[in-house]
Design brief:
The protein has about 550 residues and is mainly beta. About 10% of the residues lie in helices and about 40% in strands.
Amino acid sequence: MKRLCAVLCAVTLLSACTSLPTEGPVNATRAPDGTNQTVGFYANGPREGSTPEEIVYGFLTASAAGLSDDFEVARQFLSPQASEEWRPLEEVRIYADARVPVTTRTETQAVRLSLGAEGSIDPSGRFMMSSSDAVITTDFSLARNADGEWRIIDLDNGLLISATLFESQYSKSELHFLTADSQYLVADLRWFPRTTYASAATRELFEGPSEWLSDAVRTAVPPGTTIGSRGISTTSGTATVSLSDEALSVSGYQRALFMAQIEETLTMLSSIQNVELTVDGVPWEVNQSISLSSYPFTESTMLVNVDGRPSLYENGSAVSLSMTDVPTDLEALTIGYGDNPPMVAIADGSRLVTLPNNGSAPVTLLEGDTIGTPSIDIYDWIWAGSGDTIVAFTAEGDRVPLSASWLDGGTVDSIHVSREGARAVVVWHNETNTYMTTTAIIRDGNGEPVALDGALELGAGVDEVLDVAWIDETTVAALATLPGGSNPGIYAVPIGGPITAITEVNGATSITAGSGQGSLVLATENGQILERSGGGWRLLLTDGSSPALPG
């Protein structure tokens, strides 16, 4: 905050603690022509004779509606200088609807506003989750203008918006980049105002991936490429994107990759079905069409432990694997992709073993007292944690140890590699806390893991984590408990977004999933294997445990 103007110090104000009303004069209206919004909002300007607290509350309401009117009404609550200096989109702070905003007075008689925090958005659209007990505290200094009316003369940059209004005014965006071998797309989750979605998403796609992800992906967008002078227009479901001259430097297959990135990014918006690119009004021709997946998952057989034997479950029946020896106490069963996928499990709580289906004997890949639940990626690499080290194996036993500074002193509980193989969610703990961390996987041109780099913390509002499964390009489902809770539930945890509840569960011990929340399968402590069916569950088995779909 800037230094309070001397004129305010001479004014005597009441220093009472005030609870702000939770409803204000925000009204729905039709969105301006040419935007992607179906509903906009408007707010009333300051009323004559308003108290400082009423001015602050009016500003809070008007600034939340500012995405519809370019903050025109919100600036009426500010002095001319404050209005000129205020940068509303420098940071977006999201506050909880359920916790009533409260104002108090500081020693300098500024109005201090306190709200329950849910998260924040940076200028590039990246979301950061707040802890469950976090509070937003911000001060507003006021002074009377020439008409004797209170106006805000000093405030923090940024926008305060309720969680409900955030959901209606912002859209999630998946910026799409490329794996190191250009075989798959990798989604980088961002959040942009609906009114400026296309231009904001395109601009940030051209700027590049988030820092934590940058070394694990590549882009076909040439350096320096920007939105051209003709901007972006949308007509009848087709977005025409003007590109700067730098785009002319790519051709052939790289141009097709460029097109795939921008098409997948912009067609997330329901109003855009097609994308056309131009340079100075001339069509930017792409002579070949490619289709890259950002979620390479197809329906597959499920691996499950049935009465102590690893089995493949399909079409209502389970068939035991063909093995010369079946290890005892199998848990954390894991299956890979394809027609003849690698399969592994933890045996006796201390050995990571292969699960062959060709009549041969299992092979021990790793031994130790703290082996975390493994994962198998799209390149057939087997991932497991041992203490604070993560190891990637081939089915033949070749190994690549990988370290991460954020794991120092911790213990890996489980690893969950994303479908395209560029990211992994790692559940781990130290002496005091349990964490969910997303890390980037750096690979060589053949898909072999080289290093782990970058980290993004997830699940700030989640306590104990029992299991995790990927359900789409940017979201995992977590079987977890909330702080203070005793029974686990299943929660959708985006890789950069607010957590939402999927369903309550009783007695669940593990989960797996394919594509979407409707693909969830869980195991219970009494041996039931249940598959998500509408709003409920369908019984698959009564004597199973540790179900696993690919990944």
